[in-house]
Amino acid sequence: MPEISRFFGISIKMFFGDHLPPHFHAEYGEFKAQIDIQGLAIIQGELPPRVLGMVVEWTLQHQNELLELWELASKNQSLHRIEPLK
Known about the structure:
Layout (H helix, E strand, L loop, with lengths): L2 E5 L2 E4 L9 E6 L2 E6 L5 E4 L3 H26 L12
Antiparallel strand pairs: 1-2, 2-3, 3-4, 4-5
């Protein structure tokens, strides 16, 4: 599962050929969650509220790019990194 971004101790990853809906995985310490790219909601898992806020802010900034990466991942093609939250 390639890491596509990292910021403030949060690792953002995306699986190749993963299940719908389009989503990514966010990890922060012992917390892990799957985040719906379009709905901006946690599909599974949990994150501390402050971390979730940063992840949602980052997702809004890069939503189109994330959807493009989802398409690449669904075709098992190489993924590039996305700029971190600043």
